[in-house]
Amino acid sequence: MSDAVLELWAVHISDGVLTAPWLAGGFAVAGLLALLGAWRIKEEQIAQVALLTAAFFVASLIHVRIGPTSVHLLLNGLIGVVLGRRAGLAIPVGLFLQAALLGHGGFTTLGVNSCVIALPALLAWQLFVLLRQAPWVRQWWFRGGLVGVSVFAFTVSFEFAVGLFAVNGFRVFFGGVGVVGTPGLVENLEVAPVAAFVFHPLSIAAVVMLSVLAAWGERRLENAPEFPLGLLVGVTAVLGTVLLNCLVLIYGGQEDWRTLALFLAVAHLPVAVVEGAILGFAIGFLAKVKPEMLRWPAPEKRVCAAESVVQS
């Protein structure tokens, strides 16, 4: 398997994969996002951006083997929630370091890769801001709804992946995979029967029941009230990143990368769940000990009864 194909399995596209207009457009959009992130940045925010950039870089060092390739954590949901619009500044720096020090990705695709990861980070930020403003964000029924939506989105994706295994065979994922036109590549995946099964009313009903059970089980675990919010935001950020990456490969590739784009989506399904859990625990922890990092209202300070007696 060539190095170029190996890089397609990660969310960082390597050099020599995309056409020139997409490369130029990626740098233009990434530059605007970086300019937005650097606009009126305060001195105390620079250290926070540097810290999240370092975390983003270190996360790429931890690889998990899946079939013939490996995936790693993205943490763009966490970066978006904590940094907000500054995520557009932190992510390109982290990607540049990964390309320069680890050979992960490429320099000509730095702009596109930045957009693929930074745009879902900004989406995660806006989703978090929208949901945290809901007055019932800590109510059990709202928390259960967030967990249910997260489980529903992941389960539908998981069913689709299992369907591809069943219809096309394990050789598609674990067999030889090369460039288009060479032996070992399954050029046409049977997607229609898989979609018909996944979106059948009975399948949807089963997924809804599973989502309800997951919401009930999460409530019994007594996690932090903010955990479901982080779970949904984290899952959304990863799925959005994979979707953008697949669209770039399909419409901007120098060759036909449609099959490999599907492989990429399947391989990153476990990452969505793991990152959702990580962000859920992180938001619950920060909301308790450092709510200002999330622009979250600080909990009301309770006056000790002994202090009130002394003051009186």
Give a topology summary.
Layout: H1 3-9, H2 20-38, H3 43-59, E1 63-66, E2 69-72, H4 76-83, H5 87-102, H6 110-132, H7 140-168, H8 171-174, H9 192-198, H10 201-220, H11 227-252, H12 258-267, H13 269-289, H14 305-311
Antiparallel strand pairs: 1-2
Helix pairs in contact: 2-5, 2-6, 3-4, 3-5, 4-6, 5-6, 6-11, 7-9, 7-10, 7-11, 11-12, 11-13
What does this structure look like?
By secondary structure, the chain is mainly α. Helices cover 69% and strands 3% of the residues. The chain is built from 14 helices and 2 strands, in the order H-H-H-E-E-H-H-H-H-H-H-H-H-H-H-H. It has helices spanning 3-9, 20-38, 43-59, 76-83, 87-102, 110-132, 140-168, 171-174, 192-198, 201-220, 227-252, 258-267, 269-289, 305-311, and strands spanning 63-66, 69-72. The chain has a two-stranded antiparallel ribbon with strand order 1-2. Helix 6 (110-132) runs antiparallel to helix 11 (227-252) and helix 7 runs parallel beside helix 11. The longest helix has 29 residues, at 140-168. The chain starts with a helix and ends with a helix.
